[in-house]
Amino acid sequence: MLETFLSPLYVSLKTVLTATVITFFLGLAAARWMSGYTGKLKSIIDGIFLLPLVLPPTVVGFGLLLLFGKNGPFGKILELLGTTIIFSWPATVIAAVIVSFPLMYMSARGGFEQVDINIENAARTLGAGEWRIFWTVTLPLSWPSIMAATVLAFARALGEFGATLMLAGNIPGKTTTIPVAIYFKIQAGHMGEAFLLTLIVLAFAFVSLALLAYWKNKANNKGEGITLAGN
Amino acid sequence: MLEINIKKTLPGFQLDIDLSVNREIISMLGPSGSGKTMTLLSIAGLLKPDQGIICLNGCTLFSSQDNIFLPPQKRKIGFVFQNYALFPHMTVADNIAYGMQGKPKEQIKKRVDDLLEIIHIPALKNRYPFELSSGQQQRVALARAIAPEPEALLLDEPFSALDTFRKERLEFELLTLQQYYLGDILFVTHDLTQGFKLGTRLAIYDNGRIVQCDNREEVISSPVNRTAARLTGVKNLFDGIVTGSDNHSAIIYIPEFGTSLKTTDYSAAKLYVDQMVVLGIRPEHIEIFEEPTENTIPCREGHQVVGVTNIHYYYYAERDNNKRYHLESCRPRPLLPPCFEAGKPCYLYFPPERIITLVN
């Protein structure tokens, strides 16, 4: 009995934590790159990055199957390396990263662009290189937005169901995450177990919302000190 | 020595600037949107001009011909932004030290302490910008900009967010700062009084160009055109025609008043008969007579505006075409308000040596 939800909880946590770390860095890198990118393809790239946000998870899952399947470009490379990721634990991570990435990217970019350009320009005239400005000025000033983005990405990764099921399947102890487990418990009529798993998800949701509210509040109050100083 | 000769075209606006600064403070004066801030941004490397050249002490910062565009990081130029742009998440000391990265720790610490002493806030070293008053923030911004010992310092309306009292103190401190800072200083303002106080030279901006850049006394006494005259406080400007001239003076007929005035302005000798000119006089130079004499215009008293130190008097002259032409004079405020009645006739005397003639 304990095994039946400890296992999905363990798989989910492992997947979500790994995915959140990957999404965090991917999202920040993409956001930083796009903030400075002024090329013609800006809106197209932006659209591609945000696509998983608006597509049905099953469509994302289908797309991933095409990419990572036996005849897909990535699938072929993996086959050459003697491995496949379909129906394996890394597939849960890939699905979670893809669906949580747009949230991280969008919020981080919003955070970067909210930073007063004059403050970054001041750093430039003081001789700071672009990387130093990013680490010492842009990132600290957009930190509340980035933390809020991370919480959102975490919550989205935890809730991922459709794409995970299609790409990773339902292998207990390996790819069965909490949402997948809930679905199959209900199908099998194990309502009590589904209910307990639901409670776990609810607990995570409440903690996420509380954290989100905290960081959002911080992000909004960022300028408060500056306006107060006039008095 | 900072030399700028740049052009930049934007939709509906063209910047065309030629200016050189030689170890002095130049006040840049002009209406909003006339290109003052754009000039500063171009010098700092935050904006790329279309063509031209910018040199600082023999180092080419920008040259369209040689395809040189030094990034702002390498220009050794200090910039003080209108909103100060302090790093809100760093202490005062960290803000000031930011531009000195790479120097020995001890040296940075000493320089920060010295600068805090100079700007009179050594006790606020570990405070954050939002804990400071706007005047203190302004000082930190200034200290931060000069900390890396830039070769030129650019100030973009640095005192515009301060109240009069703090503004005057900071103006004074900026002047004393010159003892510690020997580079070129460019100072943007739209306040003539402030520009005059701080700048040894004034650069008058109009629509993307510098129409005049001269010693401040020169700009005040001999503005080159209407814009320069308006910006430097010549409130009374009229069109006129030269009807007579000799080596020292000229007679100018003003159709608006149907009167001729004599001027002994330095440019009078260069005028020729039938030349169209613009004639101007500052409010404080007009004198009021009760009887007509030479160089007076018959007027009527209009209304007065009482200020703290001055009173502005407005007069009008009525002509046959029923149009009213307005004139303004200004006097220090007497203890008792003078008798000033709307419609009362009077004669405005224009001292010949005070009349400014503009030929374009």
Key structural traits:
heterodimer, A: MetI-like fold, globular, disordered C terminus, B: 360 residues, alpha+beta, Rossmann fold, OB fold (Dihydrolipoamide Acetyltransferase, E2P), 2 domains, five-stranded antiparallel beta sheet
Beta content of chain B comes to 35-45%
Average pLDDT reading of chain B: 89
Strand order of the largest sheet of chain B: 7-8-9-3-10-11
Q: Give the name of the CATH superfamily of the largest domain in chain B.
A: P-loop containing nucleotide triphosphate hydrolases
Provide an overview of this structure.
The complex is a heterodimer of chains A (231) and B (360). Chain A is 80% helix and 0% strand. Chain A is globular, with a radius of gyration of 20 Å. Chain A has a single domain, classed as MetI-like (MetI-like fold, Orthogonal Bundle), CATH 1.10.3720.10. By secondary structure, chain A is mainly α. With 360 residues, chain B is of the alpha+beta class. Chain B has helices at 36-44, 92-97, 105-118, 134-146, 164-177, 192-198, 216-221, 226-231, and strands at 2-10, 13-21, 25-29, 51-56, 59-63, 68-69, 77-80, 152-156, 184-189, 201-206, 209-215, 236-245, 250-254, 259-263, 276-281, 287-289, 296-306, 310-318, 324-332, 345-349, 356-358. A 6-stranded mixed β-sheet of chain B has the order 7-8-9-3-10-11, sandwiched between helices. In chain B, strands 2-1-4-5-6 form a 5-stranded antiparallel β-sheet, covered by helices on one side. In chain B, strands 14-13-12-15-21 form a 5-stranded antiparallel β-sheet. Chain A binds chain B through residues 116, 118-119, 121-129, 132, 136-137, 140-141, 222-226, 228-230, and chain B through 44-46, 71-75, 77-79, 81, 83, 85-89, 98-99, 101, 128-134, 137, 144-145, 148, 161.
